[in-house]
Every structure is written in C-alpha cells, then in structure tokens.
Amino acid sequence: MLRPLALALAVFLAAGPLSHSTAHAAEPLPDPAVLAQLRDAALQSNWAFSRLTDLTEGIGGRLSGSPQAEAAVAQVAAALRAENLKVTLDPVMVPHWVRGEERAELTAYPGQVAGFSQHLVLTTLGGSSATPPEGISAQVLVVTSLEDLQRKAPDVPGKIVLFNVPFDVHLEENGLAGRAYGQAAEGRFVGPAAAQRLGAVAALVRSVTGAAYRLPHTGATVTPKDQQAVPSAAITIEDAELISRLAARGPVTVHLVLTPQTLPDVASANVIAEIPGSDLKDEIVLVSGHLDSWDLAQGALDDGAGVTAAMGAIQIIAKLHLKPRRTIRFVAWMNEENGSRGMQGYTQAHRAEFERHVAVIESDLGAGRPLGIEGYLTAADAKRLGPVTQPLRVIGAGILTERLQPLGSDLGDLEDAGAPGFEPLVDARTYFDYHHTAADTLDKIDPENLRRQVAVLAVLTYYLADTPLALERMASRP
Ligand SMILES: [Zn+2]
Fold first, then answer.
1. For residue 208, how far is its CA from the centre of ligand 1 (angstroms)?
2. Interhelix angle 306-319/67-81, nearest 10 degrees
3. Is 336 part of the annotated catalytic residue set?
4. 38-96: pLDDT as tens digits
5. Mean pLDDT across the stretch 336-348?
6. Of 336, 337, 362, 374, which residue is the catalytic one?
7. Which domains are assigned to the chain?
8. Which whole-number Å values give the CA distances from 308 to 46, 86, 348, 374, in the listed order?
C-alpha cells in the first residue's frame, strides 16, 4: 500500500499548499466487500426500471413547463420519500414553449410534375418562433456548415436556409458518438440565428443523427438575447439530401408552416434527495440525471434512463443502510433540454457549497451497456481511483477513462467551480438513432443494462463519498 500513498504525496506536493487532501491519506480505502455487495444488490434490483416505467409510460414526454413535467417532479419526489430519503424541491422558473402545427412541402423544384408538391417530414425546433398561420414560401439556400453559411452570406437574404450538416457515423461506430453529435449539432444550436442575422426568413436543419429512417429529431436552437427567434425546424436526413440534390439542379421553393408558442415562464423544481455523510458530511458527492425531456415521445433514453439510474444508485445505497463519510446528494435536474434553468437555479441556491462538491456525476447518454466510468479529472487522480473499477470488472464495466474536457450540461457550473465531473461510460452506438425523436420509448431500454448502470453509479458514488482521497480541483487546470 506504499505506492498509492507515495503517489498521493507526490500529487499533493505538486499541488501546492497544505489542504485536507493529506489529512485522510493514511485512512483505509472503501471496503471492497461493501462495493461488491452494492454491485450485486443493484444487479438484482428492478427498482430503477420500475421508476423508469412510471416516468415514461405513466407520464410520457416531460417538456419544461408542461403538466407532465410537473407530474414527474411529484412522482420522483414521492418515490424517493417512500425510500425514506430526505427530499427537497428546489424551485426554478422554466420556459414554457409549446409545439404547434408543423408542416412543409416543396412547391417548386427542377423536374416538378405540374400541380404536384413533395411533402417534407419535419419537427419544429425548441425555441423556434412561428410563421404566420398561412405559412411562408421562400427559395431554399443549402449550406453544409457555419463557414459555408458565411461564404454564401450575399445569397442569404429572403431565403430559407437549410443546414445540411452531416453526422460522422464513423466516429459514432467507434465509441465517439458524443463527439459526432457535438460536431453536427452546432448547426442546429447556432445556425438558425446566424442565418437570420444574414437575412434568412426561416431555417431548416438536417436532423442530428446517423440513422436515416425518415424520422425527424428535434432539439433546442439558441437565440441570442438581442435577437428575435426565427422559425426553424429539423427535417429528416432523406429530405435534406433530396433538397440538396434538387437545389444543385435549380431553384427549390419550400412552403413552411410552424405555429409554436412561447408562453410565460412556469414555476418548476429540481428534485433533491440526500444521504447525510458521517465525519465529512459537509462534503458532497452529487449524482444526477435530468428529469425533463422533449415532447415527441417518452424521453426514455433521454434522460429517463439516466435520471432513474441515478435515483437507483442513491436508493440502493440507502436500502443497504450504508453510511459513507461524505453526503450523497441526488439531483433530478429540470430544464436541461431547453434552457438549463435547473442548473442556473441550483447555482444560485447552492453557490456557497460549490467548493464542497468534491465530485459530481450525471448520466445523460442513454442506457447502452456500461463499459465503465469517464471522468474529467487529473491523470494522477484517475490512477488513484483505480480500486473503484475492481468490483465493476466482472460486469464488463471496469474501464476508467480520463476526459480531456468537462462534461458540461447540468454539471457545467459545478465543473467551472472546480469539481471533477463523472459519467458512466456506455455503449452509445445507437443512442443518437432515437435521440429527440418520437421513437425514444421504453422498449429501447434493456432492463439488464439499466441494472448494470445502477451498479456502476452506486459503486462510483459510494466510493467517491467514502474514499480518504481528496480529488484535485479542476478549475485551475491549464
Ligand atoms: Zn439529455
């Protein structure tokens, strides 16, 4: 046991002034037998899958501000209270955007048969504004990236801009689905507003996915504060490719009708549950998922699975009457999808505790088979945390990899304040096939993989809450 200690000391010396990190260095690591017990209990429990069933098939889609989102807050709070956990609701005001009518057709294009138009399959983007009720008609300008938009800036005024940004399936198939999404989603997040600034009357974006089943994928588009939102919708891969081919031959005109509404903000909440720690109870290990979802389906993968897996982790630790040294705090975040008000509200309410959040975890990449853990932490800490992987190896989830960038999303503010961020490392090769579509339903979840994810989160959460090691803060990392 000399090597880990020497390593810890070396890290501490490199880190600078004396902190509490050394105070616990000689104390024993979390008991491997307890970790194994936690893993096995999670693998035998159907509690998380039952909660996911209630959430998805009982409530359905949970877009912020909707009655379903409020029902989800009440349902999750009640389920955790029934497990004798201390539950609080942290109030937040959330946007209330409501989808309306959404339809579009190609009304003029090269080779058109007189009197015939082609129907497009589309879905309005969250945050889109409405067209007039009778819709708008305009010629389409196809761009393949934000740079391409800038190159074609003189042609933009009066057009409907189509962002035909491809999704890198090769990355997705090789374990980098999140990166593929990040690259392609840029067009959806900022493209419509950028097009409007150049004079576009509306924007269409190619659905951010590698799966071509003529299924549109919604998602948020972002409008800067000093700008009016532009009507914008996601079309399918097939329709984006069709329009691109037609537009290469000659002018293409689209008639577009979108009637979403932005209603006044609504009072909502993050749901918080805790297991108080013992001798280090002021220090917090946060484990979380987000409770809201898009409205097209049940939000089973995004993020019903993640939020119920995190619930399952705190539930199983409580059920086994384990008393880790630090406080474990579960958070079901509200409004991850279209505003991050849950995170902003948490930051306002808990800023004073931020330095005491020693590690933060969120699961938000579906319920594929877990392979281990990913963490935004120092390489030295990744080594020091080696023992947490030991009990997970027998279920094929014994990897601990170091991320080079923060996880962001709901954990963004906490990570900015220095807390190392973690997520389960899952097989996400099919996650973006269903993401933000009408097909994100409970049948996509393999209950066994959800149980494995609960095991990973429970072992990780308990380990971080009980370890004598103090992880290095990330805020000062170059
Ligand atoms: Zn999500």
1. 14
2. 20
3. yes
4. 999 999 999 999 999 999 999 999 999 999 999 999 999 999 999 999 999 999 999 99
5. 98
6. 336
7. 2-95+265-466 (3.40.630.10), 100-259 (3.50.30.30)
8. 11, 17, 25, 19
